[in-house]
Specification:
The protein is α+β, with helices and mostly antiparallel strands. 47% of the residues lie in helices and 19% in strands. It has five domains: 40 residues; 149 residues, no CATH class; 141 residues, Chitinase A, domain 3 (Roll); 102 residues, Chitinase A, domain 3 (Roll); 162 residues, no CATH class.
Amino acid sequence: MATLQRIRNHGVTLLVVVGLAMLAFILGDFLNSGSSFFNRSREYIGEVAGHKIHYTDYEAAKDQLTEVYKIESGRSDFDEDLTAQIRNQVWNMMLGDYSLRAQAKEIGMDVTPAELSDLCIGQNPHQLIRQRRAFADENGNFSREALIRFHSQVFGASEDIDPQQAASLQQAQTYWLYWENAVRLTQLQDKYTNLLRSLLVANKLDAKYAFDARETRLDAQYVMQPYSAVADSLVKVNKRDIKAIYNELKPLFKQKPSRSIEYVTFAIVPSEDDFKATEELMNSLKDEFATTDDIALVVNTNSDFTYDGRNYSEETVPEQYKEFAFGKGAHKNAVTDITFEDDTYRMARLVDCGYSLPDSVQLKLIAVEEGQEDRELGWFTEDMLQKQIAEPAFAGRKGTRFTVAAGLGEQTFEVMDIAKATPKVKLAVLERKVTPSSKTYSVLYNQAKQFVVNNNTEDLFRGAVAESNMTLYPAYNLDKNADKVAQLKASRPIVRWAYEAKEGQISDVFECGDQFVVALLSNVSEGEYRSLAEVEGELQGRALNRKKAELIRKELKGIASLDEAAQKLNTTVQTAEGVTLSGYAFGNAGVEPAVIGTAFATEAGQLSQPVDGNTGVFVLVPGQKNVSENTFNEETEKSQLASRYAYLPYQIINAIEEKANVVDNRSNFQ
């Protein structure tokens, strides 16, 4: 009871303590969940038309396209540029897909499963399917039978297959699903653009106006004073004048955020010690290279040039070893001296010689299913074939058949013919290109690092570059998603740094392939529009011309004829012939749309008001309008206008992407 009474006596205090504890618990839970929320937000690589793109989906699409490239090109060694191309292609496909799909959904447009199936495996497949080499016959032409066979094998395969077959099956399914999705997106885009095209039609008034604009001509006499004839010193332009033009033209200065940098490079090159060390290594290997029974082990452990035991003919052997391998004194186990060229030390050993083998074989692929025909593949040299095919092919005789594993099954080949045997040799080449050692690398890195330490402000940086006569390279308007800077290898980290640094900041040392790089962040552009300061130089000329136009118009004030205008401006009366509203050029004066419009708006024989053109100020007197005797054909004109409108649906598609409220976070993941 006493305890309960003490609780009652301190009830208010306890309520405050409990309340604070609960508040702390709630805040802690909120902050933890908030942290999870923010972490989840960092999982999305972007958003298009309200659809959030998770990083794993983007990566899966990138992996899918990579597999497609491997199958289509037969390559697996993707360099930095191709990898970047794949990333950008995936993003552009997602951007187009989600933005267009959102618009199509609003009007009930879609590509149905039945429609997609017909486009992919129907009687007349889509062009994207027909163009795939995987579905071609022996003549390289599209084969629907090959397509159906591929599809049934990929999606009707037994689950009881070995791991290698399962991997091949997975690759084939990935390949198919990519092209199926590409067909769906292309078909949806075609549907949408066709709908737009049906709406963008010319009516009778459009047709008649286009005809009249082309067929109605006039000659005009004019006097023109070029802006260049007025000295810049006669006019004065202030900030207000330039700002007025900037506000008028502001939509033209729309931009994406960008960064501009300037950078210097330090070449990562081998030192004299590196050349000496490589030469010593080659000398130490010479005896073993000349006598070993396991030449493949020695070469492949120490050389930049792999030994694979291939058979060389006189035509295929490396040019510098032709005489050594096939000359009069050639003999088994002969070894060359060590040579040096292009920063590379080399020596060669004639592993075997004095035997002959055919240069090429003619192969036929034997049909494995009923109703199929054998396919003649043509002639192949040894290096054109996979090893598992080349070995039995060149070891066999005419008419020999052999079977090899291929993907989900097996392939049987027949040797149709064998070329005449010619002399062959086996040649091993041990070569080492001189590269910077770790010690050399450290010395060069420290030199670049010291440059940063000593020149850590923009003024010091620029001063040191000028004093050392170094080359300062510019890289303007870097997008945050840029994969690299100019042609610098592996330079994506420089782009990331540029978007994290402050203007005028000097970077640390970056390693970009065979050079170190130190950069200066010279400009930061963040606004939706380029700033007045950035475009002031571009607008200066326009502002000067406007002021000059005012002077010229004052000079022409009160004139009653072209002769009087010519006298005041100390020039002559000129003639522009055959002027039309559909054209752009006004006589020899060039592109002057405002002057052409004035010519057609002014009564024949009347003196116009001064007109500010692109190149100067004009006054003119138009002649009578002459209409050609050509007959107006409404359908012809409509057809011509329709061809002009053809590009508009695609511009609308681009506009849809621009208006899709795109959030691009790719730079956070690269």
